[in-house]
């Protein structure tokens, strides 16, 4: 009986102790997280949705119903469909309007206007599909100025058989970014790597941004090298950033998804942000 009582106490205490260790990991304190433990749509206090065709000439139509929380995970599911584009305009030169049909649907969620952070340790544990044409991402954007002068950090990005860790700032040409990128080919990982969950991390402070996968450094850039090259001397990484999670399809980067079997998923166990005092 005593043994059972001690075992029960340990089962309760160990998760709490683990959480306390995470809260103070490396001098960092947990300041925000979404564990996706509530069944249903992502928490509207944390996340907003993008809608329709959004960027990069991508093939997917973003919509809310492709994101759901289930069994303690966020599931963003891409589906192959054949639907009428409600924004279709015959003879339009606008890429969003000239498409008569929607061939894929997916979801993109973000914390814009809800939660933003300047500096800290950003962690996402997730599992990504690595089939042709898929483009999952965990990334941040600065809250001020248009892209890319607002700054972009791609903590996790995957397409065309490689992981990417990218940082972008502005140039003298509007909407043209200066990229600091590094890649790691999928074949350099162990077999069945994409079938498992992995942890992506950003450590960002007033001196540098470092990007990791499973504690392996992929990219590191000092902030002094990330000033916008437009004469303003504005550094987009000395401002708060908000978080995005999405699963894109196709475009020049994502590649051809026509031979891929759908649906495909980007599964997120949690997103956490830690900061030092």
Automatic annotation (TrEMBL):
Keywords: Hydrolase. It comes from the Bacteria. Coiled coil: none annotated. CDD domains: GH16_laminarinase_like. GO terms for molecular function: hydrolase activity, hydrolyzing O-glycosyl compounds. Residues 23-277 form the GH16 domain. The keyword 4Fe-4S does not apply. One of its GO terms (biological process) is carbohydrate metabolic process. Belongs to the glycosyl hydrolase 16 family. This is Glycosyl hydrolases family 16.
């Amino acid at each position: 009986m005593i043994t059972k009582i001690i075992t029960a106490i340990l089962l309760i205490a160990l998760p709490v102790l683990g959480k306390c260790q995470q809260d103070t990991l490396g001098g960092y304190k947990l300041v925000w997280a979404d564990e996706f433990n509530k069944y249903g749509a992502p928490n509207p206090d944390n996340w907003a949705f993008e809608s329709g065709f959004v960027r990069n000439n991508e093939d997917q139509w973003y919509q809310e119903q492709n994101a759901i929380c289930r069994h303690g995970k966020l599931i963003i599911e891409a589906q192959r469909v054949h639907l009428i584009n409600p924004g279709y305009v015959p003879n339009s030169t606008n890429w969003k309007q000239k498409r008569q049909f929607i061939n894929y649907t997916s979801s993109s969620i973000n914390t814009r206007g809800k939660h933003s952070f300047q500096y800290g340790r950003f962690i996402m544990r997730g599992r990504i599909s690595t089939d042709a044409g898929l483009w999952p991402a965990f990334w941040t954007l600065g809250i001020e100025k248009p892209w890319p002068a607002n700054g972009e950090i791609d903590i996790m990005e995957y397409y065309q058989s490689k992981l990417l860790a990218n940082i972008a700032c502005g140039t003298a040409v509007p909407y043209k970014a200066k990229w600091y990128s590094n890649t790691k080919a999928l074949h350099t990982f162990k077999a069945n790597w994409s079938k498992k969950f992995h942890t992506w991390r950003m450590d960002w402070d007033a001196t540098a941004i470092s990007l990791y996968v499973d504690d392996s450094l992929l990219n590191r850039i000092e902030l002094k090298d990330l000033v916008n090259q437009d004469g303003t001397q504005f550094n987009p990484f000395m401002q708060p950033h908000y978080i995005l999670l999405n699963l894109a399809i196709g475009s020049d980067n994502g590649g051809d998804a026509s031979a891929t079997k759908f649906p495909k998923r980007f599964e997120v166990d949690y997103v956490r942000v830690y900061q030092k005092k």
